[in-house]
Amino acid sequence: DNAHRIAVIAGDGIGKEVVPEGLRVLEAVASRCGCSFRFDHFDFASCDYYLQHGAMMPADWKAQIGGHDAIFFGAVGWPATVPDHVSLWGSLIQFRREFDQYVNLRPVKLMPGVPSPLANRKPGDIDFYVVRENTEGEYSSIGGRIFPDTDREVVVQETVMTRIGVDRILKYAFDLAQRRDRKHVTSATKSNGISITMPYWDERVEAMAALYPEIRCDKYHIDILAAHFVQHPDWFDVVVASNLFGDILSDLGPACTGTIGIAPAGNINPERRFPSLFEPVHGSAPDIAGQGIANPIGQIWSAALMLDHLGEPRAAALVLDAIEAVLARPEYRTRDLGGTASTEDCGKAVVDAL
Amino acid sequence: DNAHRIAVIAGDGIGKEVVPEGLRVLEAVASRCGCSFRFDHFDFASCDYYLQHGAMMPADWKAQIGGHDAIFFGAVGWPATVPDHVSLWGSLIQFRREFDQYVNLRPVKLMPGVPSPLANRKPGDIDFYVVRENTEGEYSSIGGRIFPDTDREVVVQETVMTRIGVDRILKYAFDLAQRRDRKHVTSATKSNGISITMPYWDERVEAMAALYPEIRCDKYHIDILAAHFVQHPDWFDVVVASNLFGDILSDLGPACTGTIGIAPAGNINPERRFPSLFEPVHGSAPDIAGQGIANPIGQIWSAALMLDHLGEPRAAALVLDAIEAVLARPEYRTRDLGGTASTEDCGKAVVDAL
Ligand SMILES: CC(C)[C@H](C(=O)O)[C@@H](O)C(=O)O
Ligand SMILES: CC(C)[C@H](C(=O)O)[C@@H](O)C(=O)O
């Protein structure tokens, strides 16, 4: 049996609405390309599961999904019933860390037909990757509180950067830039203000850049870099960033290209020792959940990233072409893009375009 | 002698070019309003000073400027000769901390005549404040490195939030919103990922909001909030944020309104136990320094914020009117605004408009 074994986790909110559209597209492209999938659905990593079981995941979650070829993930979080840090640290952040998915790869691309909030930008002008460190940095669980409920109350949390963790994400970014035309890496820093970890990040960037003389490497502090995303999105090719900075830049980038509703993410373990996870950049969006109006393109584009990772580049390219064709048609645009199409209308249109 | 005593520190790079324009405007408005200034110039808090003295400031810097009514500051940093964390932690960050300037107040406003990179936005659409915590949070000096130059190398840095520090910045933000029409506070958080300090921030926001029932209070995670700055800048009235998040948002906001070259900042000690410091949001900009092309409006607008703080609201309003008049005239626009005016042309135009 040559089928790709996929663990499917829809999660919460609009995750439950967009994942079925992603699966529909995967089935369609499989029949065109002669590949096949076995989908195993899991109900954990959701706030419903938490409310029933008192934990986001069963104790043996690693055994249940660790043998799959990839995880196709929707979104998690329902702050009305479970605090976000509980739901996220109990699921998505566990996957990233325990499956050592240390690369969070997020393409930012202005697509034909998608109205950009920026004036005077056209498809082709914006086309870059955010390469985000995905396991350490500002997302650490070390810290705590002392003197609660007094004037002396203090809360601390560590940022942790390791040589191994920083070097491997930088290497991934430089290798990616090496394969691209512009051969340009931009590092996000804040070494003027965050005075210990960020100068270290800069130091490792310099060391890595020395190994890639053909690559042009520059750096900006995160504040002005965010400004440049708005004012000069055409400057970027591969942007490498710490966990938190990458998180911010990979929502900001897609906002500049029209909507975070279409942005995909790959949480990748490049050594393939563990399954990688593919998900849209957007979250569970409680404000629009249950209405059938969420944009499924982020989920579908994530399916394309997954196909690439599974060694099905032709299928991935077909899905991307279908996405471009659909985005160009106003009648298939969901509300975030100024249209009136439903989640299902848009998903079916991608299938038809295939 | 009723003169306001101002400590003037031009610093590095374009700081040395824009500060004189700010002073020119202050002199002009003084003669119109019957107030007066005594300017004391200091050469420390600059990288030149560092190269001569081996420190950014003399040991008695607090005595030298601590008795002034305000500090009028340009920009500091010259990474080609002094690493940014050395120059900044040896000067600006010291001022903020030692003079307990715990509020960093940064207006974001789309001005008539300033071309915005956002499509379809006009003056009046964007008009809000970023209220940034300015003394603690992510900008702590606690941390260090272990196992240098080995595979085990680890670097850590603490984020530190105190009850007193968080509550006072929130109170400032809610009080400011109270005086505004929309009475709306937006809190920047990241409690889904930064799992210890940020849930604490949220908790204090909730406690403060309970004391201000007339104020509408919402919160967004920093990643989607950055996206909303681009897509819905009209949503915001008062945005309150930690030190790092406020730093990012207050460059991003001005980028959305056209240029960070016009954005001002007040580093304020509301209790007036110490001098407050007024500076443009932009930095020393080594890339354009020495060419006389920097936009002086950020510095001049900072002078207006300073006038307000010094109890000269009429003078402040006159300067703001003059800024608006000049920005509306294409011939006085500097290069960042697509024009060809020099720093001096633009500064003199503001004086003439007065
Ligand atoms: C220069 C730097 C340390 C500073 C900061 O991050 O606070 C600057 O970006 C600012 O916004 O005033
Ligand atoms: C939900 C949250 C913890 C997550 C993150 O911050 O990593 C999300 O914003 C993302 O970008 O995948």
TrEMBL record, chains A, B:
Per its record, the protein catalyses: (2R,3S)-tartrate + NAD(+) = 2-hydroxy-3-oxosuccinate + NADH + H(+); (2R,3R)-tartrate + NAD(+) = 2-hydroxy-3-oxosuccinate + NADH + H(+); (R)-malate + NAD(+) = pyruvate + CO2 + NADH; tartrate + NAD(+) = 2-hydroxy-3-oxosuccinate + NADH + H(+)
Provide the E.C. number(s) assigned to this enzyme: 1.1.1.83, 1.1.1.93, 4.1.1.73
Which keywords annotate this record?
A: Manganese, Metal-binding, NAD, Oxidoreductase
**Entry superkingdom:** Bacteria
| Metabolic or biological pathway, per its Swiss-Prot or TrEMBL entry | Carbohydrate acid metabolism; tartrate degradation; 2-hydroxy-3-oxosuccinate from L-tartrate: step 1/1; Carbohydrate acid metabolism; tartrate degradation; D-glycerate from L-tartrate: step 1/1; Carbohydrate acid metabolism; tartrate degradation; 2-hydroxy-3-oxosuccinate from meso-tartrate: step 1/1
Cite the InterPro entries for this sequence: ICDH/IPMDH, IsoCit/isopropylmalate_DH_CS, IsoPropMal-DH-like_dom, TTC_DH
Where the record annotates domain Isopropylmalate dehydrogenase-like, the positions are: 5-350
Q: Spell out the PROSITE patterns in the cross-references.
A: IDH_IMDH
Required co-factor? Mg(2+); Mn(2+); K(+)
GO MF annotations, alphabetized: D-malate dehydrogenase (decarboxylating) (NAD+) activity; magnesium ion binding; NAD binding; tartrate decarboxylase activity; tartrate dehydrogenase activity
Which family, according to UniProt? Answer: Belongs to the isocitrate and isopropylmalate dehydrogenases family.
Do you know which PANTHER family this protein is assigned to?
Answer: D-MALATE DEHYDROGENASE [DECARBOXYLATING]
Job of this protein: Has multiple catalytic activities. Apart from catalyzing the oxidation of (+)-tartrate to oxaloglycolate, also converts meso-tartrate to D-glycerate and catalyzes the oxidative decarboxylation of D-malate to pyruvate.
What is this protein's record name?
D-malate dehydrogenase [decarboxylating]
Organism expressing this protein natively: Sphingomonas sanxanigenens DSM 19645 = NX02
